[in-house]
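Continuing the batch. This is chain 6 of the set; chains 1 through 5 are on the previous pages. Same settings as before, nothing changed between runs. Recording input and output for traceability.
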Amino acid sequence: MALKVKTAETKVVLVNLLICIIVFYTVYYVVLSVCFAVFRIKMLDGLAPFDFKTNPSWINPYYLVLVISLEITFFLCGLLFALVVEEWVWDYAVTVTIIHIIITSVVMSEFPLMLHWWLALGSGVISMICGGQILAYYLFKDNFIYPILDDF
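Output for chain 6:
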């Protein structure tokens, strides 16, 4: 049994993925800029979205900016992804997160092994998926695809 994939469907998925990646990093840098201004940190580091090496400390304003901006970005992107992809928010959220992990590893020249970074990333992905899927359900419930579970 051969796998049949239409070129048009693949193109739509790749275009949606590209849009989601652009939205993700645009929102990330905007939220970082706002957080840097709110916390009065003098210089915005261009590599801040990829910084997992900062020591976790609740009294370190730079660390707080990194964590807060990550969480806000993931939540907002879940809502924005719902507008772009309509119903498959979880799929695009996981894919964009995996791409972010790969880019982070390349930019920082090592794989992130910091537990605090993974916890922040994991909670961000959960909020992205939940917020986006709920919004997609309420916006597009008339044409939402429900799985057929009769075969299980």
